[in-house]
Amino acid sequence: MKFQKICVIGLGYIGLPTASTFASHGVNVLGVDINQHIISTLNKGEIHIHEPGLRDAVTSAISTGNFKAATQPEEADAFIIAVPTPFQDGKFGEYKGITYKLADMRAVVSAAESILPFLKKGNLVVLESTSPPRTTVDLITPILARSGLVAGRDFHLAYSPERVLPGQILRELIENARVIGGVTPASAEAGKDLYSIFVKGQIIKTDATTAEMVKLMENTYRDVNIAIANEFSRLADKFGVDVWEAISIANLHPRVKILSPGPGVGGHCISVDPWFFVEAAPELTPLIYHSRLVNDAQPHFVVETVKHALGSLSGKRIAALGLAYKPDVDDLRESPANEVVHILQKEGAEVLAWEPFKPDANLEGITMSLALENAIKDADAIVVLVKHTEFTKLDPSVIAQQTKARTLIDTVNCWESEAWKAHGFTVYRIGDGKTKS
Ligand code: SAJ
């Protein structure tokens, strides 16, 4: 199948890079978003999100005339839906004492509905949004059937999840393997034709529900593995063992690859996607469910470590370094660092936060510092919550001059303890066994 024009619906972290990559490969792309501010920002040649290389990619796509942004779709050869699938606000499911979060599919539904007036025979529709199993077949197919056209017979329909890592999106979009699940083999083939335009990695064809499950399995696998690393950090403290040393030794085993403990799991993927399985089958998912609970509770474990290091939190001034959900990104959504700051404050500490990727972030209940020096100057302790490269490079001799704090709590294995010790600092790392209770 040939594609001269495509519509990408949803211009966020995935839709925008996808749209600009198609445009830079010669396809005429209309990017669609319901947010007028995003559309005018893009049409001015600016972008609304931080992702390395994205500004240049979008600017050059616009300058070639191949990329335009609008609030409504138009007729096209293919439609790609890349809108968010967050949780429903304040609504939960219940199953035998288990309370689970529910996916909010409203954006996917309205994106599918927005295509209806423009859908033609022979088109291809691809859902990219992470979705509960069977969404393509049970939710999208009936919506698109309202056009009078049947998926798999009159037009192609496929599910193809994005699997790129924030911070490396533009490279991974091209290089990663891509799975395309069609509602029919011909739909998968049409999807393959579309993504072959720029994907250099392997393209694997399968059915739509398998592709949905692949995506959820990948992120759930990671969540469960981070949960065990976090649980090990708690066990290590109980037994007076340094979890970081223990993990590095265990990982010498050829079949063991334990991930890193940290302040918890953030972002809009790994902390979200496992719930889609729990919602779809609570009776089959005790491991997935409990892993979510372990990771969600990890900010409390961090606060216990800080409390242990300082004796008490009441009236203590704490500098919190890093609010992003992971290293070297500016994305503060669903960040465990945020949660740690809130709990510290609840326990009586005064916290000043420094986030180099968004120094002036406006976060409810959090006081931001516009400079590192200002955050640490009068602090009693410094807590590092994200392993930003710039934090790993901090020089203890310089920091020793800039702060009166001599207690450091490292939640991400950011600092070499000995180097800091030499400048009078005491370093606590979560799970280092020093906080043995
Ligand atoms: N984290 C740990 N310990 C670790 C690794 C990560 O605590 O050893 C934490 C991070 O600090 C962060 C969270 O987990 O808070 C998630 O970070 P991540 O880098 O593991 O993943 P994401 O959410 O940025 O991106 C994931 C990726 N999925 C997998 O690696 C299986 C990416 O490929 C997906 O495209 C993305 O989710 C998505 O959009 O679903």
Low-pLDDT sequence parts: none
How much helical structure, as a percent, in the residues? Answer: 25-40%
Main sheet specs: 8 strands, mixed
Report the strand count.
16
Strand order, biggest sheet?
A: 3-2-1-4-7-8-9-10
The dominant shape is: globular
Give the number of helices.
16
Q: Would you tell me the overall average pLDDT?
A: 96
Small ligands present: ligand SAJ
Quaternary: single chain
State the end-to-end distance.
64 Å
SS-derived structural category: alpha/beta
Strand content: 15-25%
* Rg, alpha carbons: 24 Å
Q: Overview of this structure, please?
A:
The chain is α/β, with parallel strands linked by helices. The chain has helices spanning 15-24, 36-43, 54-63, 106-115, 135-145, 169-175, 185-195, 208-239, 243-250, 273-280, 286-310, 336-346, 372-376, 389-392, 396-402, 417-421, and strands at 5-9, 28-32, 67-70, 78-81, 87-95, 98-103, 124-127, 156-159, 178-182, 203-207, 317-321, 350-354, 367-368, 381-384, 407-410, 426-429. The chain is built from 16 helices and 16 strands. The strands form three sheets. An eight-stranded mixed sheet has the order 3-2-1-4-7-8-9-10, with helices on both faces. It has a six-stranded parallel sheet with strand order 13-12-11-14-15-16. A two-stranded antiparallel ribbon has the order 5-6. Strand 9 (178-182), helix 7 (185-195) and strand 10 form a beta-alpha-beta unit. Helix 1 crosses helix 3, helix 8 packs across helix 10 and helix 10 (273-280) crosses helix 11 (286-310). Ligand SAJ binds next to helix 8.
